[in-house]
Amino acid sequence: MQSTTGAPRRRPIPGPVSRYPGELALQIMQSRLAFFETLHRRFGDVARVTLGREALVLLSHPEAIRSVLGAPQGKFKKGMALERAKLMLGEGLLTSEGAHHLRQRRLVQPAFHRERIAGYADTMARLAEAHADGWRARAADAPLTIEASGEMHALALAIAGETFFGADFSADTARVSRAIDDSMEAFQLVVSPLFPVLRRIPVLPAMRRFRAAQAALDDVIARLVAARRAEGPGRDDLLGMLLEARDGEGDGGGMSERQLRDEVLTLLAAGHETTANLLTWTLCELAAAPLLQDALRAEVAAVAGDAPLGAAHVPRLVLARAIVSEALRLHPPAWIMGRRALVDHEIDGYVIPRGTTVLASQWIVHRDARWWPDPARFDPGRWLADAPATRPKFAFFPFGAGVRMCVGDQFAWTEAILAVAALVRAVRLSMPAGASMPVPAPSITLRAQRPVTLSVERV
């Protein structure tokens, strides 16, 4: 699929038509994944759906997605979901636009340079190994039952706290986790097509919990920043860099208090939420594949022996990276992303009008049999050989692409590889008898619908 030049051929974009007002909105609310899967299956790689006054176009061909995510600044901006996410995250790096986004990215980017990530890696591995040691101690006499999602959120929060902010979040783990859970629940309403109506009902329990969650997160962040300011300059972590950052290409100023709050909240919430979900899905897949666990355990032994894991081991943990890659393919934490067209955009003879929200779904594209044979099967082996020459680059885009690509993608890769290696090195995972892979619950991220119970045994 390629964009054409010259005068566009204005053929109508195919899509469903509502039989009654609100029909399509209700279908999306009932099952987002099923709705977009059906939309792609029935109408192809360019499909249109209208929800009230909102026009959406789902693009499902890698080349069409490339034309949007790789477009220069000024053609697209963030879509509706992240516009509304400002209610939670403010004007942080994830939600901001234009010159403000470019300035904030310049200030944050140095914290994610390769050399700094290598410095974070030892902390990531140490905390993952300590988490695994806790499992081993609790499983000394009998197999331990864990709720994997909660465990991985606690681990990811600990890693974010120490690497980003030089802080021990153990006392705040339950409070922060509950606040983020409540925010995620409320976000289901925020991104709903019915939100313009629902927001007028201030007594909705989910919205009350959302406001309480925001207050809790603001309190944690305020205490974190105040403690660091009291220490004075000199701490070489992300929070220290944010406090001392100056914009060399702009006005030379630092961040305002509000900007600092928004960036810290974005890094704390988005940074640990996505990795925790990735680790949860990865452990589920490994629990269903005991031979794969044995192979990974053998790789870790060959690479590191009995030594603690660290940055130097990451490039050699080839199977661990393949396992994480396959989990990202099948269970992408960012399962869909949107861009709003600022100008008319033409693709394959279709004209997408200015103002339309363009969607690209990792869930759809990562499971497309054209690029991924036997797409529903968890097969890390597909990452151990060179990718087929016929597979387009944008058949896999778990962290987005272009000028808005996730600034922390290499941080997330390093964290996930080391955490998976450290955990499986120490314990054997299995699913309870009769259990199957959890049902996904797509919101702003792809969580499991219900608590994820796994069994842990000492190796």
Descriptive overview:
The protein has one domain: Cytochrome P450 (Cytochrome p450, Orthogonal Bundle). A hairpin with a 2-residue loop joins strand 6 and strand 7. The longest helix is centred in the middle third of the chain and has 31 residues. The protein is α+β, with helices and mostly antiparallel strands. The chain is globular and about 65 Å long. The termini are far apart. The model has no long low-confidence stretch (mean pLDDT 88). The strands form 4 sheets. The chain has a 5-stranded mixed β-sheet with strand order 1-2-8-5-3.
What would you call the structural class?
A: alpha+beta
State the total count of DSSP E strands.
12
CATH classification, class level: Mainly Alpha
- How much strand? 5-15%
CATH topology value:
Cytochrome p450
The CATH architecture category equals: Orthogonal Bundle
State the strand order across the main sheet.
1-2-8-5-3
C-alpha end-to-end distance = 50 Å
Q: In total, how many domains does the architecture comprise?
A: 1
Helix count, DSSP H or I runs of 4 or more residues: 17
- Helix content estimate: 40-55%
Q: Tell me the radius of gyration.
A: 22 Å
Q: Please identify which CATH superfamily we are dealing with.
A: Cytochrome P450
> What pattern of helices and strands is seen along the backbone?
HHEEHEHHHHEHHHHHHHHEEEEHHEEEE
Mean pLDDT over the full residue set = 88
